[in-house]
Structure formats: C-alpha cells, structure tokens
Design goal:
With 112 residues, the protein is of the alpha+beta class. It has helices at residues 2-18, 38-49, and strands spanning 23-31, 58-64, 66-70, 76-79, 93-97, 101-108.
Length: 112
C-alpha cells in the first residue's frame, strides 16, 4: 500500500510547514485519476500523525473529478478512468484534471 508512504510524507511536509505549532485541520485534494486511494490516505492518517504536531488533527479530503480533452475533436468531458474514449471514438486524450495530490490548506491551533 503506497498510500501509507504518501501519508507519512504528507504528515512530514505539514509538520515542517507548521514549524512546531499544533495543526487543527489539513485539507488535501486527491484526483480520481491519480492512482491514490483517498480512503486509504484517511485510514493511514491517524497512525502517521501520531506523535507529531498533527496528532488529533482533522483530515479533509476533496476528491477532484477526472477531466480530459479529445485531441481529435476538441471535446472536453469528465472521465473516471485513464482509458475512456471520447464520444467521437478518439483515444488521444489530454488530461486536464484528476491527477492531483495537493496539500490545499493547513489550519493551525491557536496558541495556548
């Protein structure tokens, strides 16, 4: 499960950005075409955050729909896979969105 390694890297990046401050919430964007399972990231998050500035933080995951443009006819459309054909039958697609894995925002706790 490569999501555990990804989650550990996300926790490390957020902890570095927090610079020792406690984290209240992390918002991630995960594209549906990225090959990353959002549920697996959520499952691994608590374990990866344990003992860090992110322990107890809320994780919000926003899934980004896949979107492509056909290079044959120029049509843009939503797609759930990397192998979808355009309505014109074309398979040469330019991916426009859905491959993201972004740390969108970090919310810090107020100092005590």
């Amino acid at each position: 499960m490569h999501e555990l390694g990804l989650t550990m890297n996300i926790v490390a990046a957020v902890a570095a950005a927090a610079n020792g401050r406690r984290v209240r919430r992390v918002t991630l964007e995960v594209g549906k075409l990225s090959g990353v399972l959002a549920d697996a990231i959520a499952f691994c998050f608590e374990v990866a955050a344990k003992g860090t500035a992110m322990e107890g933080a809320e994780l919000e995951i926003r899934e980004i729909e896949g979107r492509a443009r056909c290079r044959s006819c120029g049509a843009e459309f939503e797609t759930d896979t990397l192998f979808t054909a355009c309505a014109c039958g074309g398979h040469r697609l330019e991916r426009l969105q859905g491959e993201e894995l972004n740390i969108k925002s970090i919310e810090l706790r107020e100092a005590a």
